[in-house]
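Recall the central idea of this unit: under ordinary conditions, the amino acid sequence of a chain determines the structure it adopts. In this exercise we apply that idea directly, starting from the sequence alone.
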Amino acid sequence: MDKIRILATGSYVPPKALTNSDLQKMGLDTTDEWITTRTGVRERRIADQGVNTSDLAQKASLRALETARLKAADLDLIIVATITPDTCCPSAANWLQAKLEAPQAVTFDLTAACSGFIFGLNVATQYLLTGAAKKVLVVGAEIMTRTLNWKDRKTCILWGDGAGAAILSRGKAGHRLLSTHLHTDGENGKDLLLPGGGSRTTPISHESVDKGLHTLNMIEANASFRVAVRHFVGSIKEGAQHNKVAVEDIDWFVPHQANLRMFQAMAKSLGVPIERFYVTLHKYGNISSASCAIALDEAVRDGSIKEGNLVCLPVFGGGLTWGSAFVRW
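Accordingly, the structure predicted from this sequence is:
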């Protein structure tokens, strides 16, 4: 039977960088050392005004299409994982479809916060297995910097903007997507909350803006750290067991880029070298659904991931959402 394959990846980050020192100059009560020590982030990329999420997604998608030697007209389905779409309606995927000039493709957004790219891979797999689609573009794309209160040190130091993409098909050519594993916990989803924009806080009012309801709120960061590490580790072990491989046989971990201390805790818990974790966090910060997609593309393009490598992509995000994907490259 033909297997699910990743034909190509692509990514894009805006050229403008905001360093930790820049944040300090903006009047934030912090230092480069404080941020780097606690998070691992040294700088993050910022999309210019007038640039939207679908613009970042378009650039990442075109790079993936070029690598796969495909045209947008070859796509049957476009899935955009995002919590920062251009508009609530139409979806970011619809905007992307128009920019790619791919009217034949079915398009929709998927919302799973920082786990979005892996959720997108899972959904694409179902379409491919049933034959409902033959070529699927999955994109994780975010402009997180427009959700921030730049006076809130807990949140504004973490996030950045960018997009990562993958093209999937079913066949004998390409890199085999072995499995995806998904979990959610709505009961505890309030720990990372963006209240504004939905039916809870609509329409926008002076009161809702003054209360900070249109910016990202992070509650109980220390508790979230422990929960994230537990679910990261659990999803890695789940995927390894499913594929009948030992955790120590995984060549590369390409995780959602949340926090360097998380990676260190994960490596210790799993008993694997931290050097097996591919990290882009220091350059780009946390780009939510785009993070592991961008890191995967960079690891492939710089030669870190080689043919035959077993790659694990573990993720954890607001919602709560978490899971993993396993790929034989």
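The chain has eleven helices and 13 strands.
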